[in-house]
Amino acid sequence: MTIDRHATHPAATTSPGELVQFVFRSALSSGLLKTAREMLDAAPRELAESFEQAVRRAGLAS
Amino acid sequence: MPHKIVVTLHGIRTRGQWQKQITPYLARHGLIPYHLDYGFFGLLSFLVPWARASRVQWLRDELRDLMDRTGAKRVSLIAHSFGTWLALEVLEAENGNIRFDRVVLTGSIVRRDFPWGATLMRKRWIQALRNERATGDWVVRAAELFSRLAGPVAARAGASGALGFNTACPGVHDRAVAGGHSEVLNIANYDKWARFIAYPRLPDDHLRRVRRLVQQIRALAAARLGVDAALVRANIFVPGASALRMIPGAWDNMHWAPEHDIELELYHGCTGCAFTDGTPFSIRRLGAGWTAGVLPGPEQARLDPRLQWVLSLPIGRIDARDELAVARDVVGVLNVDGLDSVPPLLQTADDPTLKTLVFALWASTEKIRESLALADTGEPLHDD
Question: Residue A6: its pLDDT value, please?
């Protein structure tokens, strides 16, 4: 099975068959980050903290 | 996951009282101690090449015998002083025929330029190393001095038990304390060594936190995918000696027992792809079966027949310095998967909502990464 992961550098790429690779540009749209945070609104605080920690470490925080 | 055997090996001018003391700490983490004793070995014997060689041969025989009788492909090791030198001599002499799992060196006199990266880690002769050293250890410094002065007849010894090894290498963990040669045999260290060797089996503190986060991620995924949480499951795969395997207990809603023993290699299935590439992957079942070749037959046969989809999230430091955000230093893969049917959202890979959800779940694994990284070195949880 081959996966053409760098084909177009979209926000997410699909690969042949049922296997899908999700590729995220480093310059994430602010909309994606905002919506992801909203998804975590109702989640336990520990999980939201985990998310924010990753985003900060990755330099994606805004 | 089979119980690990831990060989302990004492140093010179001692019969290794610490070997008896450490037994309950090893047992507490499900480890099987196997204490080796080559008798009282004096300083003068250490200076005699044939005396050293006879002990190397003795250890080779002991380890072969142990592995033959138990069927173990690898054993773990805790060694002190001359025992560290013996163990590494055996490893090099055996050229891969004897391999260690996880190794703790204490008061090590192994030479400081030992080629960890070039030989052992790449060839997987050792899975991971914890070098416990004392900065004021004059014994290991004397061993290095002797090695330099005596030339070819000397043991290839070094002061790694005081100064550490020359080169950093992934899988080699260095711990330093102030004090002398026996300071590293402090009983306060025993539990950490046992934790280090037991990995990827998690000790209670890490397991509690990891399991809680896994439960939370599973619940979030189920809610956002709009499916019954009872049909969604979660588990974590981490690399072992030869394959990716599930961490026992670090799962949620995993009731199909054969799956607990699945072994995956790089690029095997969704999990293997996520681990290898450091990006999330998903896979869904099309029709009656999974695509041929995605998993090796025996592993595919272990899957719950009701399994319909898997989302694999690499657990690593998400790094956005280059054009793409990828997980670096991947320590494992968190899988969220589901039974009976594929949620509509997962059938539309380009849907922005799905992409956002995948990112939210992926980034939420950070505290799991933190715990696994700590557990891999034997350190307890600090902030929980």
Answer: 34
Interface of B with A in 240-259 (CB under 8 A): none
- State both tokens at B111: 């030479």
**What is the residue-wise DSSP string for B118-154?**
IIIIHHTS-SEEEEEEETT-HHHHHHHHHHHHHGGGS
Is the confidence at residue A25, as pLDDT, over 80? yes
Give chain B's residues under pLDDT 50.
384
Tell which residue, B62, B61, B172, B29, has the closest CA to residue B114: B172
- CA distances (Å), origin B240, targets B5, B31, B98, B122, B309: 15, 16, 17, 14, 25
H-assigned helices in B29-81: 43-46, 49-70
Q: What pTM value is reported for the model? A: 0.88
Q: Is B284 on the interface with A (CB under 8 A)?
A: yes
ipTM over 0.95: no
Residue A30, pLDDT > 60, answer: yes
pLDDT higher at B266 or A53: A53
Select the residue from A21, A37, A41 to test the B interface by mutation, using most B Cβ atoms within 10 A. A21
Domain ranges of chain B: 5-198, 204-377
How do the domains of chain A map onto residue ranges?
13-57
- Indicate the fold that domain B204-377 takes in CATH: Beta-Lactamase (3.30.450)
Query: Stretch A14-37: mean pLDDT, rounded?
Result: 80
Instruction: Using alpha carbons only, give the angle B141, B146, B150 rounded to the nearest 5 degrees.
Output: 160
**Rounded Cα–Cα distance for residues B31 and B130 (Å):** 17
Q: Which CATH class is domain B5-198?
A: alpha beta
How would DSSP label each residue in B235-261?
EEEEE-SSSEEEPTT--BS---GGGGG
- Which residues 349-368 of B have a C-beta within 8 angstroms of A? 349-350, 352-360, 362-368
Tens of pLDDT, residue by residue over B93-128, are: 999 999 999 999 999 999 999 988 877 777 889 999
Residues of B in contact with A25 (CB under 8 A): 323-325
Q: How far apart are CA B25 and CA B45, in angstroms?
A: 32
* B364 with A60: Cβ contact below 8 A: no
* pLDDT of B292: 54
CB pairs under 8 A between A and B: 142
